[in-house]
Design goal:
This protein is an alpha/beta fold and about 150 residues long. It has helices at about 15-30, 45-60, 75-80, 95-100, 115-130, 135-150, and strands at about 5-10, 30-35, 65-70, 85-90, 105-110. The structure holds D-ribose (RB5).
Length: about 150
């Protein structure tokens, strides 16, 4: 296990059904799921919901975020604008696992129009079960340095 116990979920209209499925899935695994919206399948922008779930990771309110939109792209691009968030947009279990092991991803973006329900559950399970390998920490430190340089630019 990776130490992720409490997961924040966010979606837009395209990701709503898959978000509900994945929240039930992690609860079935005995983990906590916190819903940052959207709360219905009505058409909405992904931005605010993704931002809320990522800010909760940064503040320590949750351990990780799972973000679902049509492709995973809008959510991941948004998430990676937030300092301290390392969001992986993933559509296969191998990348999911490696994004934890090598990149210590603390957010996972999924495309509900890209992966089916069962594949998404498998991807999420791989992601939750993988552990960061600390030998990769120097590269993550360089990302933090880049964020600092960008703030000063
Ligand atoms: C909504 O139609 C779609 O653009 C959105 O869910 C997402 O795929 C954007 O990246």
């Amino acid at each position: 296990m990776s130490g992720i116990r409490k997961i924040g979920f966010a979606c837009d209209h395209a990701g709503f059904a898959l978000k509900e499925t994945l929240m039930a899935h992690v609860r079935g695994r005995g983990l906590d799921a916190v819903d940052y919206g959207a709360f219905s399948k009505g058409r909405v922008d992904y931005n605010e919901f993704g931002e809320s779930a990522c800010r909760a990771v940064r503040s320590g309110e949750t351990d990780a975020a799972v973000l679902v939109c049509g492709t995973g792209m809008g959510m991941s691009i948004t998430a990676n604008k937030i300092a301290g968030i390392r969001c992986a947009a993933v559509s296969d279990p191998y990348t999911a696992r490696m994004s934890r092991r090598h990149n210590n991803a603390n957010a996972l973006a999924l495309g509900a129009r890209v992966v089916g329900e069962e594949a998404a559950k498998m991807i999420l399970d791989e992601w939750l079960d993988a552990r960061f390998e600390p030998r990769h920490q120097p590269r993550l430190d360089k990302i933090v340095e880049l964020e600092a340089r960008e703030r000063r630019a």
